[in-house]
């Protein structure tokens, strides 16, 4: 099956079913109940060449918090599981991604040690039904659940839709880069011998 994961996570707040394939072609089938989140995860799959099937039934009658955060937890868990022993992968990935007036820096280290550095100022409370303060919560959940070091910075940008979409695309490209195999690497890329 290659590097993939199937995850089911059910709580009183959310019911999440995800199939994730690192070595995909960008095929996505995403239904989270939040249009803008679907749009962002479609971009993530397409630009990272990941296949992503996702259905989320969240408590949207409360707000979008649990749905977005728990989707991040599950995506991080899927990345970690799909990566397996991390043998022969590049481990590091980074990009400075432009999107119109927006410029986003994203750097990933699949180190096994969770950390999120997130400096992305936003000026709108919402884009569609999506609460913009949840972007940081989403990536915090992904980074901790996947046990990756993740830094994301806005270098420039005005439009909140562009900025957030730039963040998701930059994350996709940096993660794709970090997960690619390098034939020069035998075992894992660490002097410790483990990632
Ligand atoms: Mn868009």
From TrEMBL:
NCBIfam families: PRK00951.2-1, PRK00951.2-4. Its main location: cytoplasm. The keyword Iron-sulfur does not apply. Pfam families: IGPD (PF00475). This is Imidazoleglycerol-phosphate dehydratase. It comes from Lacrimispora xylanisolvens. It comes from the Bacteria. Coiled coil: none annotated. The gene is hisB. Belongs to the imidazoleglycerol-phosphate dehydratase family. One of its GO terms (molecular function) is imidazoleglycerol-phosphate dehydratase activity. Pathway: Amino-acid biosynthesis; L-histidine biosynthesis; L-histidine from 5-phospho-alpha-D-ribose 1-diphosphate: step 6/9. The keyword Amino-acid biosynthesis applies. It is found in: Cytoplasm. It catalyses: D-erythro-1-(imidazol-4-yl)glycerol 3-phosphate = 3-(imidazol-4-yl)-2-oxopropyl phosphate + H2O.
């Amino acid at each position: 099956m290659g590097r993939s994961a199937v995850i089911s996570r059910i709580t009183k707040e959310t019911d999440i079913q995800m199939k994730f394939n690192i070595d995909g072609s960008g095929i996505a089938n995403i239904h989270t109940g939040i249009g803008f989140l679907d749009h962002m995860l479609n971009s993530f799959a397409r630009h990272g060449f990941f296949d992503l099937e996702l259905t989320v039934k969240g408590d949207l009658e409360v707000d979008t918090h649990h749905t977005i955060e728990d989707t991040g937890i599950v995506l991080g868990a899927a990345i970690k599981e799909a990566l397996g022993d991390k043998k022969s992968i590049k481990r590091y990935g980074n990009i400075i991604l432009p999107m119109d007036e927006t410029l986003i820096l994203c750097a990933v280290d699949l180190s096994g040690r969770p950390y999120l550095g997130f400096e992305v100022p936003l000026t709108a409370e919402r884009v569609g039904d999506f609460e913009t303060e949840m972007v940081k919560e989403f990536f915090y959940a992904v980074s901790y659940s996947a046990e990756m070091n993740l830094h994301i910075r806005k270098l420039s940008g005005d439009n909140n839709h562009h900025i957030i979409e730039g963040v998701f695309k930059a994350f996709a490209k940096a993660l794709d880069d970090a997960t690619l195999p390098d034939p020069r690497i035998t075992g894992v890329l660490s002097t410790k011998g483990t990632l």
